[in-house]
Amino acid sequence: xxxxxxxxxxxxxxxxxxxxxxxxxxxxxxxxxxxxxxxxxxxxxxxxxxxxxxxxxxxxxxxxxxxxxxxxxxxxxxxxxxxxxxxxxxxxxxxxxxxxxxxxxxxxxxxxxxxxxxxxxxxxxxxxxxxxxxxxx
Amino acid sequence: xxxxxxxxxxxxxxxxxxxxxxxxxxxxxxxxxxxxxxxxxxxxxxxxxxxxxxxxxxxxxxxxxxxxxxxxxxxxxxxxxxxxxxxxxxxxxxxxxxxxxxxxxxxxxxxxxxxxxxxxxxxxxxxxxxxxxxxxxxxxxxxxxxxxxxxxxxxxxxxxxxxxxxxxxxxxxxxxxxxxxxxxxxxxxxxxxxxxxxxxxxxxxxxxxxxxxxxxxxxxxxxxxxxxxxxxxxxxxxxxxxxxxxxxxxxxxxxxxxxxxxxxxxxxxxxxxxxxxxxxxxxxxxxxxxxxxxxxxxxxxxxxxxxxxxxxxxxxxxxxxxxxxxxxxxxxxxxxxxxxxxxxxxxxxxxxxxxxxxxxxxxxxxxxxxxxxxxxxxxxxxxxxxxxxxxxxxxxxxxxxxxxxxxxxxxxxxxxxxxxxxxxxxxxxxxxxxxxxxxxxxxxxxxxxxxxxxxxxxxxxxxxxxxxxxxxxxxxxxxxxxxxxxxxxxxxxxxxxxxxxxxxxxxxxxxxxxxxxxxxxxxxxxxxxxxxxxxxxxxxxxxxxxxxxxxxxxxxxxxxxxxxxx
Lengths: 137, 566
Description:
The complex is a heterodimer.
Chain A: E1 6-17, E2 23-33, H1 42-51, E3 60-61, H2 64-73, E4 82-87, H3 88-96, H4 101-111, E5 113-116, E6 119-121, H5 128-133
Parallel strand pairs in A: 1-4
Antiparallel strand pairs in A: 1-2, 2-3, 4-5, 5-6
Helix pairs in contact in A: 3-4
Chain B: H1 34-38, E1 46-50, H2 53-56, H3 74-83, E2 87-93, E3 123-125, E4 131-133, H4 140-159, E5 165-174, E6 180-182, H5 189-201, H6 209-227, E7 232-240, H7 245-252, H8 258-270, E8 274-276, H9 284-296, H10 299-305, E9 319-320, E10 324-327, H11 334-337, H12 340-347, E11 352-355, E12 370-374, H13 380-391, E13 395-399, H14 405-417, E14 421-427, E15 429-436, E16 439-444, H15 447-450, H16 454-467, E17 474-477, E18 484-490, E19 501-508, E20 515-520, E21 525-541, E22 544-561
Parallel strand pairs in B: 1-2, 2-5, 5-7, 7-8, 10-11, 10-12, 12-13, 13-16
Antiparallel strand pairs in B: 3-4, 5-6, 9-18, 14-15, 15-16, 17-20, 18-19, 19-22, 20-22, 21-22
C-alpha cells in the first residue's frame, strides 16, 4: 500500500430502477487519487479496503453521506488525515470550462468538499493551495 | 547526425513547430520558415505531418490545401520537401488528434464532447499546459463530413501528382493495464444514445456497444482508404505519453512523473505502436524521455509499425525482445483474472506483444515465441489462420473458456483426423496438448484458475511456460525498489557467428535513491559489451554480475546468446 496522508475521491451519481420498479440512486467511486494526483490502481483501492475494518468490497453507496462517512470512518486505517470529495459532474463542468490547469484548479476549488482529521470543512472553506500542493507534513 | 536518429542529438531550443521526434506542425510556424524547419530533419527519414482537418475547412464548406491561404498550402510544403530530399508522410486522422484544439475537428463539428470510460470528459493537457477537450468522432455528421474532407484531400494529392505516403492516423494512450486505447473510443451519453438508436433500427442484428464502436472505426478506415487510395499505405498507431486519464489527474497538479512515462513508453513497444512525447512540456523530463525514444524507436522498429520492409542492414538494429504474442479481447479479464499478466510482468516484463490474430506471422527469431490466445478472439473466419499457424510449427497456448463450442469441436476433430500426438494432463485445470512436428498447442480453461490465489496461479503459469524452455536471463532485484529495464535483440553480424542472436538489456534507475540488482546468466549467455555506463558500479564474477546504481544511473549490457540444443 502506498503511504499517503491525503486522498481525493471522485464519485459519480446515477439512478437505476430496481426489481420493484423504484428509482434508486447510486453513488459510486470513480477514482481515488493520492497526494500527488497519482491514481491508485484498482488493486490498491481494494487493498486499502481490505485493510480497513469494513467488510465492504465495492464502492457503491445509496447516499453521498454514506460514501463520505465510509472513507472518513476508515481514515485512520487508510492512514489519511485529509480527504477531498469531488463529484464527477462538477469535475466535468470544470474540464469543459477550463482552458488550462490553473483554470481547472479554480473550478475544482468551488466544487470540492474536504474532510480533515476531526473536522469536516464545508466546500468553500479550505485552501486551494492545500488541494493542489498536497500535504506539507 | 546519425541517419537513424529520430530526434536531435544536439541541444536546441524548444520549437513548437517541431515539438518532438520527427513531427512537423506546419500550422505552428510561418510558411516562410518551412524550408528552414524542414532542414532540421535527416534526409530520407519519415517526417510525420498530421493533416489538421479543422485548419483546412473553409467557411464555404470546401477544403483548401493550396495557395489560397499560405498556412494551409500543403502543395508548397510538398514541393519544398521534394527539393530538399525530405520524406513527408501525411497522417490523416482516424479519430481525435489529442494535441489539437477540439481533437482536430472543424469547430462546426465540435458539438459533443467525448468521454473516457470512467465518465470523465475526454481531455488531455498539451505541451503548453493547456487543456484540449476532445470531441466525439462517433457522430453521423462527423463521419459524413469526413467523407468530404478525405475526398478533397485525395483529389488534391492526385491532381498535383504528389507521391507522399498517407497513413490513417490512430491516436491513443496507454492505459494503466498496459494496453493501447484509441481516443476514438467514446463513452459519452450522446454516443450511448446514438448506439441505442442504432439498436432500435436494427433490432434483428445483435451488435454490442463495442462492436458498434469498431464498426464506426472501420468506416473511418474504409472512407480514408477509398478516398486516398493512390497514396494510402495503411494505419499508423501512435501512443501519446501523458495522455491518459491518470495523466490528466497527475498533470493537473503540474507533476511530471518520469517513471510513469517510461512505463507508458515501454508499454507502447509491447503494443507495437509508436510512442510520442508530443504532449509533454519542454523540460528535463521530456529530454530524458526523448533520448530514450530516440534510441529505441529506430528505423527498424519504425518500418515495422509503418508496414514497410526493412533493409537487410536494419536486421542488425536492435528491436524489442519478444517471447510472447498475446492475443486477447480483454473485456472478460483474460489477462488479469487467470494471473497471466502478473506472471508475465514478474518474469518477462515488456517481452511480449499485444497483437491480433490477423497479424500473426511465422517467426524467424532464434528463440521460441509462444502465442497466448483468448478463445474469444477466435471466430470462424480466423480459425483457419490459427490452424495454419500451428501447422507452420508455432507454439500456442489457448484459453478455451470463451472459445465457441463448435470451434472447440472442430479443433478436436482436426486433431483426430490428422492423428496428432495428444496428451491430457491435470494441472489445476485440465490441459490438452497436441503436437505435430514442431507445432505445439496447449488448451486450458481459465475458469478454474480464477478462483485460485496468486501463488497457485503463478505456479500454474511457471509450469506451463517452463515446458517451452525459454531462455531468458533473470534479473534479481529488490521488489519493493524495482529498477526499470528493457530487453532488445538483433541478428548477429559476420563477426559474431559464435552466437545465434545478440540481446541487450538497458537498465535505468529513475529514482533519487540508490538501487542494486544481480544478473545470473546461464552458460549460453556471454557478456559482449557494457555500454552507457553512467553512475553504476559493476562487479562481474563468473556468471554473476552485481550492479549498484546511484540515483538516476543507467547501464546497458549486451549478451551473445546461443542455444545449446541447436
